Amino acid sequence: MADYEHRHIDLSGLADVRDYKSPGSTPRQRTLQRIREEHGRRVVGELGTAFEVADRGREALDLPDGAFLPDGVYIEVELAPSAGPTTLEKKREGTRQGAVTISENGARRIALFVPDDTRDVFEAVFRDYAFADVEPGAEPPKKTRVEPIENIRTARLQSFWRDDPTALPEGAQAEIWWALWCFKDRLDRVEDLALRLGLTVGSEDTRLQFPEVVVLPVFGRRAAIELLLFSTGGVAEIRRATDTPTVFTDHLAEMVNEFVDDLAERTSWPGRDVPAVCLLDTGVNRGHPLIEPALAPGDMHAVASEWGVDDHSDIGHGSGMAGLAMHGDLTARLGDASRPMLRHRLESVKILPPHGFEPNDPFSYGAITTSAATLPEISAPYRSRVYCMAVTNEDRSGAEPTGWSSALDQISSGADAIDEGPDHIRRLFVQALGNIRDNSRAEDIADGDAFPGEDPAQAWNALTVGGTTVKSEIAERSYRDWSGWARPGDRSPYSRTTTLWRSSQSPIKPEIVFEAGNRALSRSGSEALSGLPSLSLLTTSKSAGAHSVTPFWATSAATAQAGRLAACIMAEHPDYWPETVRALMVHSARWTPHMLGEYNGSASKSDRKNLARKYGYGVPDLKRALASASNDLALVAQRHIQPFRIENGGVRFSDAHVYRLPWPRDVLEGLGDQSVRLKVTLSYFIEPNPSFASAIDPARYQSFGLRFDLKRARETDGNFLRRVNKDDRDEDDPRPVNEDNDGWHFGPKSISAGSIHSDTWEGSAVELVERDLIYIYPISGWWRERRALGRAASKTRYALVVGIETPELDIDLFTPVSIQAAALVAAGVSIEV
Question: Where are the beta strands (DSSP E) in 192-324?
Answer without folding.
Answer: 200-201, 208-209, 213-221, 235-240, 245-247, 276-281, 300-302
